[in-house]
Design a protein that fits this description.
Blueprint (H helix, E strand, L loop, with lengths): L1 E2 L5 H7 L2 H4 L6 E2 L7 H4 L1 H19 L4
Parallel strand pairs: 1-2
Length: about 60
Amino acid sequence: MVSGPVRPVSRACSSSPVPRLIPGARAEIVAATGHGPQIDHPDVVNARMLSFMEDADSLTAPRG
């Protein structure tokens, strides 16, 4: 979940049970943005998404 710090969106993101219920999920707050962090700060959102995917990939990559 990615959200800006605008209430109630950030409160919903940070208090949502979704990240706690999905193994490996994260809640990310992007500062200085509103309802569309992917539009306001695509570089920040993309970097966080890539980091998440790299972390997830390293957990599921075949070993050996």
